[in-house]
Amino acid sequence: MQVTFCRLRTHQWCFILFNVILFHALLFGADFVEEYFLHSLPHVDMKVLEIKDKARKLNMEPLKSNLSTYYILNQPEVCKGKNIFLLSLIFSSPGNGTRRDLIRKTWGSMTSIQGHLIITLFALGMPVLVTTQKEIDKESQKNHDIIEGIFLDSSENQTLKIIAMTQWAVTFCPNALFILKVDEEMFVNLPSLVGYLLNLKEHLEDIYVGSVVHQGTPNRDPHHQEFISLSEYPEKYYPDYCSGETFIVSQEVARMMYVVFKEVPVMVPADVFVGICMKSIGLIPIHSSRFSGKRHIKYNRCCYKYIFTSSETTDAEMSLAWKEINDGKECTWLETYYGLISCKLLTYLDSFKHFHMSTLENNVMYVDD
Ligand SMILES: *[C@@H]1O[C@H](CO)[C@@H](O)[C@H](O)[C@H]1NC(C)=O
Ligand SMILES: *[C@@H]1O[C@H](CO)[C@@H](O)[C@H](O)[C@H]1NC(C)=O
Ligand SMILES: *[C@@H]1O[C@H](CO)[C@@H](O)[C@H](O)[C@H]1NC(C)=O
User: Fold this and answer.
1) Residue 64 C-alpha to ligand 1 middle, in angstroms?
2) 4, part of any domain
3) Of the ligands numbered here, which is closest to the C-alpha atom of 67?
4) Start-to-end CA span in the chain (Å)
5) Is residue 172 part of a domain?
6) What is the value of pTM for the model shown?
7) Nearest atom within ligand 1 for CA of residue 62
């Protein structure tokens, strides 16, 4: 009856309704499917239990007495005697003091959310120039928020950076419930992120969450900078891992990671390295589409109030987003809905443009060959 009614009298309405549903399914369907399928139970066996046990009994005291072999700058007291909910470690390049200052003034300035304590620190390696080191020393004396490991800060050394900072976190911040690794180019909406963490109900001690990359493949092009040979990583796919710009681990997971570091090949990209560590401790990453991964999300106030991160944020956008998110103006359900549609559509169009551009560039390269 209904169908006949529909076809005869209001088929236009049905058509419109169908299109609206199709539009939403296309726009949001992938997110739901991803979140559903990328969420499964962690795998536990004897080896994992052994690692768990080792992680619980980790003794970092010897390291504390030998600190100068690992860190140039170190903040051994920042976490002492506090109940910390989230430790944000912002991975920054040594020469980027202006960016750090901007983050200190914007999203990095939050010290507490809904009564939960947040600590924000900058993670650096060593600069090439002595003059840069002098500036960093000054900056550190002023702000007391820089950890500098003893290794050259270069794109090839990012895995070393992750190892050094995880080691720092388990040694000096064992009282932080969650640890956030985030790159300085990101804008982070800490209140929505903390709200999400507070709502995670399952396996709270086993958290590894971010924008999950499913069936990532090693780069097998020998001319490429990120080339991975078959002897370095023989398998076809990487295990699922969280895209490196932003991910969160719980303290227990950080400790387990620290235990297995030495057994994992360092040659793969840093985020894949973390993913392989997680696989060896039986952990499967949790995906949320509110993490942007590598994507820049087109700015829209109500959209930015909802999402967790956006990549490649300019200084101006960072200031604007920070100001507008904290102006106390709430977003209605409809505004959030509209904001999400608009920023998602624009972001898709953008990535399509990038895709198109890079295909064009590739073609040009082949013509040159
Ligand atoms: C402390 O540092 C020295 C010198 O680098 C090194 O030989 C020793 O193994 C280190 N000890 C620990 C416990 O890390
Ligand atoms: C990584 O850091 C080490 C230790 O400082 C340094 O010797 C090495 O040259 C760095 N590697 C690259 C590729 O920058
Ligand atoms: C500083 O950070 C910004 C934002 O990520 C980036 O665009 C810029 O290239 C960085 N500058 C240096 C000197 O690393």
Assistant:
1) 11
2) no
3) 1
4) 65
5) yes
6) 0.86
7) 13
- How far is ligand 3, taken at its centre, from the CA of residue 103, in Å? 12
- Among 126, 150, 156, 266, which residue has the most ligand 2 atoms within 8 Å of its CB, making it the best to mutate? 156
Distance CA 115, CA 307 (A): 21
Q: Within a 13 Å sphere around the CA of 174, how many CA atoms are in the beta-carbon half?
A: 12
CATH number at residue 151: 3.90.550
Ligand nearest to the CA of 62: 1
Token digits of residue 131? 């003059």
* Position 203 in a domain: yes
- For residue 163, the CA-to-ligand 2 centroid distance in Å is 14
- How many domains does the chain contain in total? 1
Residue by residue, pLDDT tens for the chain (369 residues) are 455 555 556 777 777 888 888 877 777 777 766 666 555 555 667 888 889 999 999 999 888 888 889 999 999 999 999 999 999 999 999 999 999 999 999 999 999 999 999 999 999 999 999 999 999 999 999 999 999 999 999 999 999 999 999 999 999 999 999 999 999 999 999 999 999 999 987 767 889 999 999 999 999 988 888 889 888 899 999 999 999 999 999 999 999 999 999 888 778 999 999 999 999 998 989 999 899 999 999 899 999 999 999 999 999 999 999 999 988 888 998 998 888 888 888 877 777 666 555 554 444 443 333
Tell me the C-alpha to C-alpha distance, in Å, between residue 317 and each of 204, 300, 310.
Answer: 33, 10, 10
Any idea which ligand is nearest the CA of 167?
1
The answer to whether the CB of 128 is under 6 A from ligand 2 is no
Does 13 fall in a domain? Answer: no
| List of residues 6+ apart from 84 with CB closer than 8 A | 117, 118, 119, 173, 175, 176, 177
Distance, in Å, from the CA atom of 339 to the CA atom of 192, rounded to the nearest integer, reads: 15
Q: How far is the CA of 60 from the centre of ligand 1 (A)?
A: 13
Q: What number does the ligand 2 atom closest to the CA of 156 have?
A: 13
Instruction: Write out residues with Cβ below 6 Å of ligand 3.
Output: 93, 95-96, 99, 184-185
**Residue 337 is part of which domain span?**
23-368
CA pseudo-torsion sign 108, 311, 202, 305: positive
Give kind and range of the element (H or E) at residue 320.
Answer: helix 315-325
